[in-house]
Amino acid sequence: MRLTSENYENFSRFVIILVAISAACAFSLQTIITKVAPNFPFWPQFFLLEIPATSAFFWLFFELFDKYFWKWKFFRTIGIVDGPDLSGNWEGKFKSSFDNFATEYPVTMTITQTATKIEVHTQFNQSRSGSLTASFEKSNIDGTTALFFFYQNRPKADAVETMAMHEGACMLVFDPTTKLLTGNYYSGRNRNNHGEMTLKKI
Is residue 123 classed exposed, middle or buried when 0-12, 13-18 and 19+ CB atoms within 10 A define those classes? Predict the structure, then answer.
C-alpha cells in the first residue's frame, strides 16, 4: 500500500479508528478482569494491562487487515487501498528485443501481496528474477494504476553465454475486463534489452 496525497487522509482516519477499537477492546478486557478479581487495584491494571493490551489489539487488527481484510472491496471504495489484488500465480508469453521480437517465449510469475508489501518472482525460459522493490503508481496522463518494480535477474545454468546477472525495471497494467496483465520490461545497461509480456492468472 502506497500512501499518497489521495489516500493519506483516509488511511490516517483508519488508523485512528483502529486505535479507538483497540483501546475499547483493552478496556473491555480490563472490565472483565475487574469483575473476576475485584480486589485487584485499578492503576496496576491500567499500566500493566490496558496500555499493553491496546498495543497488542492494534497489532492483531492491523496484521489481520494487512494480510487478509485489505482484499475486501470496501477498503478500495473508501480509498484506503489503491491497487488491485494481483496475488497468485500467472502465466503467459513474452517477446524480447534480443531477437527483434521474432519469437514468443513462456513466462510464469508469482505475486505475493499484502496491504503494505508486494513481491514479484518471475521465471523466464533462460533466467529467473525477483523484485527488489515494487509499488503501485497512478499515471498522471490517463489515471491508470500500474504495478512498477525493479528486479534482479539471474540466468539459469543452460542460458546463452551472453546472458549475465543484471537489473531492470518492469511496468504491468491489469485489465479488469480481460483479466490480463500486460506491460513492458527494460533490462540494465549490461543487457540493454527490452520486451513486452502478457500474463493471465492461473
Answer: middle
Q: Per-residue pLDDT tens for 70-127?
A: 999 888 888 888 788 999 999 999 999 988 999 999 999 999 999 889 999 999 988 8
Is the predicted pLDDT of residue 3 greater than 70, yes or no? Answer: no
Backbone angles phi, psi at 59, to 5 degrees: -60, -45
Given pLDDT bands bounded at 50, 70 and 90, which one contains residue 11? confident
Q: Are strands 105-113 and 180-187 parallel, antiparallel or unpaired?
A: unpaired
Q: Spell out the residues 6+ positions from residue 17 whose beta carbon is closer than 8 angstroms to its own.
A: none
Q: What is the pLDDT of residues 140-192, one digit of tens each?
A: 777 778 999 999 998 887 766 667 788 899 999 999 899 999 999 998 766 67
Give 3-state DSSP helix, strand, coil % of the chain, rounded to 5. Answer: 35, 35, 30
Q: Which residues contact 104 (CB under 8 A, 6 or more apart)?
A: 93, 94, 95
The single-letter code of the amino acid at 55 is S
Per DSSP, the three-state class of 62 is: helix
| Amino acid identity at 62 | F
Topology of 88-201 in CATH? Porin (2.40.160)
**CB crowding 135-169: b at 16 or more within 10 Å, else e:** ebeeeeeeeeebbebebebebeeeeeeebeebebe
